[in-house]
Structure formats: structure tokens, C-alpha cells
Specification:
Helix content is about 55%, strand content about 20%. The chain is globular and about 50 Å long. The longest helix has 26 residues, at about 65-90. The chain contains 5 helices and 7 strands; from the N terminus they run H-H-E-H-E-E-H-E-E-E-H-E. A hairpin with a 5-residue loop joins strand 4 (about 135) and strand 5 (about 140-145). Helix 2 packs across helix 5. By secondary structure, it is an alpha+beta fold. It has a 5-stranded mixed sheet, with helices on both faces. A two-stranded antiparallel ribbon has the order 4-5.
Length: about 190
């Protein structure tokens, strides 16, 4: 009896910790990784890249004119757009890639072992997938949605021994490429080394 209780108790406690961990690392709306988890994963990937001499790329994107979407479809409609976009992106990624909601209407993707050229291909595929089909909302309406995307690669010039600083630099380069895409007319991909 005591052994049986211990085993059951251990499983319940393990399940409890698993649920708590999932709640801490997952965005409640989109069910993708949250910013906190993504930042930790980026640092782990930087350490791995340094250890094994590998590269990876970061894709950062933002929904174009999201405020207009919220104004016209309401916050419920905006939430549905975020959820459906997360699903569209997941369909374009490999299992080894990581998708996260970085804030508001901004998402990030970490492409493991992918340099800038293949990352630009994936980014374009994501952009085309989202732009290529209207987002159907639960109220029966459909919205045409586009995204602007910035891509940056961990370059050989990056000093990976300063993990925090390098992570910030990589995010900044992807963010700058994203804003160049927005300035150049939106619904496009911008790349940075």
C-alpha cells in the first residue's frame, strides 16, 4: 500500500510540475513558446553554436496594420488572427525549429543549423502562406492579413563568449531588418547578416 501511494503520488507531483512548467513557458493565447522561454532557448542555442561551431538564424515578424485589425474586428478577432497565424507558421517549420510569441503581434522563429539563405527561403514561405489566404474569423468574416519579416544569422563575427550581449545583438539585427521591410512597403522579407 505505501509503495502504491508513493508511485501514484510521484506521478501526480510530476504531472503537476509538468503543467506548471508548460504554463510558465507557453503563451496562453497562441499555445507557442513565450518570450521568456524563447530568450532562454536563444541563449542555449548560442552556447551550442559556440561549442560546435554551428550557425543558426533568427526570424522576427510582425503583423502588418494589427491595430486596424483590432479596430475593425475587435480584440476577439485580433486574438483569432494571432492564433491562426501561429498555426500557419507552425506548418512551415521543422520539428527542430522553435516558434515563440515575442510580444503583442510579434513572433520569432529560431532556425537551428540554418544560415541566412535557407532562413530567407523559410521566411518567404511563411510570408506567402499568411498573405495567400484570408483568415476566417468565428463571426463568419475573413480578413486579409500580411506580415513583415526580418531575418538575421549568427555570423562568424559575433562574439558568442558574451552570450547575453550576442543574443541582444542578434535580436536587434532581426528587428532592424523587420523595420526595413515595413519601411519598404510591408508584406515582405528583409535580411541581415
Amino acid at each position: 500500500r505505501t509503495i502504491l501511494k508513493f508511485i501514484v503520488g510521484g506521478n501526480i507531483e510530476g504531472q503537476y510540475h509538468e503543467v506548471i512548467y508548460r504554463l510558465m513557458t507557453t503563451d496562453g493565447l497562441t499555445q507557442v513558446h513565450n518570450k521568456r522561454y524563447f530568450d532562454e532557448m536563444l541563449e542555449r542555442e548560442l552556447s551550442r553554436a559556440q561549442r560546435y561551431g554551428r550557425t543558426f538564424s533568427l526570424i522576427m515578424f510582425d503583423i502588418d496594420h494589427f491595430k486596424k485589425i483590432n479596430d475593425s474586428a475587435g480584440h476577439q478577432g485580433g486574438d483569432e488572427v494571432l492564433q491562426q497565424i501561429a498555426l500557419l507558421i507552425k506548418a512551415e517549420l521543422r520539428l527542430s525549429d522553435a516558434l515563440g510569441r515575442y510580444g503583442g503581434e510579434e513572433f520569432v522563429v529560431l532556425l537551428i543549423d540554418a544560415g541566412l539563405p535557407p532562413a530567407l527561403v523559410v521566411a518567404e514561405r511563411i510570408r506567402a502562406s499568411i498573405a495567400g489566404q484570408p483568415i476566417a474569423l468565428s463571426d463568419g468574416t475573413a480578413l486579409a492579413v500580411t506580415v513583415s519579416i526580418g531575418v538575421a544569422e549568427l555570423s562568424s563575427a559575433d562574439r558568442v563568449d558574451e552570450i547575453d550581449k550576442t543574443a541582444q545583438q542578434l535580436v536587434s539585427r532581426a528587428d532592424e531588418a523587420l523595420y526595413r521591410a515595413k519601411e519598404n512597403g510591408r508584406n515582405q522579407v528583409g535580411g541581415a547578416p
